[in-house]
TrEMBL record:
Pfam families according to UniProt: AMP-binding
InterPro entries: AMP-dep_synth/lig_dom, ANL_N_sf
Record SUPFAM superfamilies: Acetyl-CoA synthetase-like
Domain AMP-dependent synthetase/ligase: 8-332
Family note: Belongs to the ATP-dependent AMP-binding enzyme family.
Organism: Sporolactobacillus shoreicorticis
Signal sequence coordinates: none
UniProt keyword list: Ligase
Residue stretches in coiled coil: none
Protein name, entry field: AMP-binding protein
Length: 391
């Protein structure tokens, strides 16, 4: 879905902006040419139809390598470099053949993988972004005709509440349907700018940032690490429409409330990744006049529900499910039904099918609906075998 969507964008709107990073602006044409070049480089290193771990911070090279791996029909494991302690377990469980990593992580990976035959390529060994000529022969455009590894495109990982690595397998259909849900709910538009300082290697950053922007033609603005000064400068310079943040980021913005915060260009501030503290939400509204739009999702299912129109009375709610997703609650347990749910996952014990009950997946989260059918999350159930309960 990732590479195929890029090809579609090049055909239909090649000169539109696809990416902004460190004030570098990249059109769909420019992005495609870099992806093509990197794909060829990876092929020369036999990185085709392999399981590949991609462990980089937000950058042009991260996006380019992710799309190049998609073109090469690889099954991609996304890893956040900030979570170094959990990486070895995740790599072992996922059984990758190759890892693409930040330079400073090379020694750590070499030590972690010394007893495994896993090829490590560092960022400095990979092609750098190049401002290539936008004029090229459109006949080079092609989509993948070969089938992917068991039709899976991505492996998303979490240590969850158990502290043990768990890998969910995502098909192209999972990713496409999730992107459609996001774009429909939040009305992503071509040429509007979506500012995403959240790691693209995190499921939330991947879906609300990269895949939704690819699918809609919106421009993705990424940042290696978030800081308030950059937020202020970027907001003034580029006038983004949507902001993809987590509670910790909004707290940082609140902490600078003594300064003028210009948020006039933003129509929505998205919030997910961690539970929102009501004080952060209230203070952010006092600073900006805008309520945070909470999103509820999880590794196995991506977006489950979203509070698209938050108000003073419901801003702590995660809203309602998108079309095609159904939610049931029994004894406070939240069950969901959606085509975005992965069909299998993997742990140290091996691969397992996702356990569904009458077509519903138990999230192990507790919650309730208010009188307006807005979903509120109360927390985790603390019991991992709720999936055996009957609906």
């Amino acid at each position: 879905m990732l590479y195929e969507t890029l090809v579609k964008n090049v055909r239909e709107k090649g000169d539109c902006l696809a990416l902004i990073y460190n004030h570098i602006k990249v059109t769909n044409y420019g992005l495609f040419q870099n992806v093509l070049y990197t794909s060829t480089f990876l092929s020369k290193h036999s990185v085709n139809r392999k399981r590949v771990a991609l462990c980089m911070h937000n950058s042009l090279e991260l996006i380019i390598n992710l799309l190049a791996l998609s073109k090469n029909n690889c099954l991609i494991l996304l890893l956040n470099p900030a979570n170094i302690k959990s990486l070895k377990d995740k790599i072992k469980v996922s059984e990758v053949d190759v890892t693409l990593v930040e330079d400073y992580l090379f020694r750590d990976f070499e030590n972690m993988l010394y007893d495994n035959k896993i090829h490590v390529l560092t960022r400095s060994q990979l092609p750098k972004y190049s401002n290539l000529n936008d004029n090229f022969d459109l006949n080079v455009l092609n989509v993948n005709e070969e089938k992917r590894i068991n039709n899976y495109e991505l492996m998303q990982t979490s240590t969850g509440t158990t502290g043990r690595a768990k890998i969910a397998f995502k098909t192209s259909e999972n990713l496409l349907l999730d992107a459609q849900n996001i774009v429909t709910l939040y009305s992503y538009k071509t040429n509007e700018i979506v500012y995403c300082p959240v790691p693209i290697t995190h499921g939330y950053g991947l879906t609300m940032g990269l895949t939704a922007c690819l699918f809609s033609g919106a421009t993705l603005l990424i940042q290696r690490f978030f800081d308030y000064k950059s937020f202020s400068l970027i907001s003034d310079a580029y006038k983004p429409s949507l902001f993809v943040g987590i509670p910790a980021v909004y707290k940082m913005i609140n902490d600078h409330s003594d300064k003028h915060i210009n948020t006039s260009s933003y129509r929505t501030f998205l919030c997910s990744g961690d539970p929102l503290n009501s004080e952060i939400g209230l203070e952010f509204y006092e600073c900006t006049g805008k309520w945070l739009s909470q999103i509820y999702g999880m590794m196995e299912a991506s977006l489950i529900s979203a509070n698209v129109c938050p108000t003073s009375s419901n801003f702590m709610s995660v809203g309602r499910p998108p079309d095609g997703t159904k939610i049931k609650i029994k004894d406070e347990l939240i069950f969901i039904r959606s085509k975005t749910i992965s069909d299998k996952y993997k742990t140290r014990e091996g691969e397992k099918e996702i356990n569904l009950i009458n077509g519903y997946f138990c999230t192990n989260d507790r919650g309730y609906f208010d009188k307006n059918n807005y979903l509120f999350i109360k927390g985790r159930s603390g019991y991992e075998n709720n999936s055996r309960k009957a609906l």
